[in-house]
Fold this protein.
Amino acid sequence: MTMKEYAKTGEFNLADLLCCAASREVQDNEVVFAGTGLPMVAIMLAQKTHAPNLKLIFEAGTLDGRPAELPTSVGDPRCEMGASRSSGLYDAFAIAQRGYVDLGFLGGAEVDQYGNVNTTVIGDYLNPELRLTGSGGNPDINSFAQRTVFIMVHEKRRFVENVSYITSPGWRVKKWPEGSWVPRQALYGAAYRGGPSAVISTAGVFRFDDETGVIYLDTCHPGQTPEGIAELCQFDLDLSRVSGETPKPTYEELHLIHEVLDPEQIFIPKTVKG
Amino acid sequence: MMSKKNKRISLPEAAALIGDGSTLTFSGFTIWRRPMALVFELIRQKRRDLHLIEVNGGPQTEFLVGAGCVAVWESCWVGHELYGKYGANVSRKVGTGELLVEDYSHAEMTFRMAAAAAGMPFSVSQSSLGTDLHNPAYDMLGAAGKRDGRDGRIACHKYQFMDDPFYGGGQYVLAPAPKIDVAVLSVQQVGEEGTVRVAGQYYTDPEVARAAKITIVIAEEIVPEEYLRRNSDANTIPSLEVDYIVECPWNAHPTGMFGRYDVDGDFLRDFYQRTRTQEGFDAWAQEWVFGQNHLSYLEKLGWPRTLGLKANSAVNYSTSVKRGV
């Protein structure tokens, strides 16, 4: 066994798999905007493996961070040790709007086939079943970064035809004040830089067609089938481009996640449940 | 503003400066450096109809909303980060119609506050184009008839849209600069004349301090002004923007403060779990807020708990606090 070998089923858990899949979306030398939670572990994992020169920006104001200990939130003092500069939100968002950010990691409660994401409300906005956290920086990072990757729990109620509220813009969005549907590129004009490039769910990894902006299945997580995943979507999922199975974590990655990055199990549990 | 006057006041005096119906904002970010001791005092004084305008929300929002102090919450996010998925009190009171929520995005709130701090009428950005944030049907202050000009603090539109008139750069979104009556900051150090030195990320503190009509600074310690002026390049907020100062150690607990103490995750988790219902909130407030003052609150927390949160002065966070499972 070498550290670069892939672990076998039963030697890792779903959070490990998601973390490694997210880490592999990062390329070296990129400027990456970090959110709180599993993506923070994923980015630091990339920093310690294939992307040692990535530049990490925390929304609360830490620029080019190299934390020694895992922060629990982007406001955490742990973000700041080793950083190039600690400042505030104006700097973080101005840098993003200026166009420095290559990649952002985001979450969502609902996603539709065009990559529109809802983190604001379940049900009708004016008469909500459940009010959630709200947008936070989700739409901002999604507007400004060249690529965004969403990490989501996969349930049929979350993969919907149309999200009940567009918190964060996908590939087909609404032009206000009239509310007509338009392609993202048309609305953003000269400010267009990109948009959602992947959704990593607890079932598989999804990407978007360059032309139509429609989601398709790329890889299935171990134990999942394309047909089974299609059953978990309320829209007709494009299965024509499935490239195989989501790569498993390597022993090196598992070691880094559990012994180096998150030994306290703040975001990634150590238990293995299939 | 008053540079000669002695700016020192007490915590109850600071809370009394914030009248019913005030537009109010705070320092900090989510669960970090929030003026919680002042928030508890506002709840004790039974403040009502506050209009919170926050770059982002957090436990301070949840405490005030649960206690019925807030009529309007204008912001982008509320929760307890790792220690509570969403703002259960905001969520409940939106459902019952007791709370009006006006949503903007995080960058929009930041740029709006920066516009207010620069004395400009609105912010300009291309953030969040194409989202329901910009849906005119979701202008909640407008739908409530509050954009009729009678309250000069409320803008007559939530958003306006315009094409870039200079470079043909596409559609832009204009959002009104907020009119802030009072900003309350929680910081590590303030000088006797009001100079503030924030350690660590300063979030949007410089913007909120400059935007507000009245700025109150609650500090872990009041230090000699001359000490801060020896290295003025390290200071964050100039004295002339600060109207009142309060000395109050551990004032941000249960939120955390760079270099001083970590977030009290157990406290926030307990609050989140117990305050899903109004009865739960009321029982929690009876235990932790009413009949207490800041010292009795600290006494109730006790030495073992506070010492466990205390930051290590070399790394600026606690090296002994238990964070994971």
Notes: The longest strand of chain A covers residues 195-201. Residues 203 and 223 of chain A are 9 Å apart (CA to CA). Helices of chain A lie at 14-23, 38-48, 89-98, 138-144, 184-188, 226-231, 251-261.
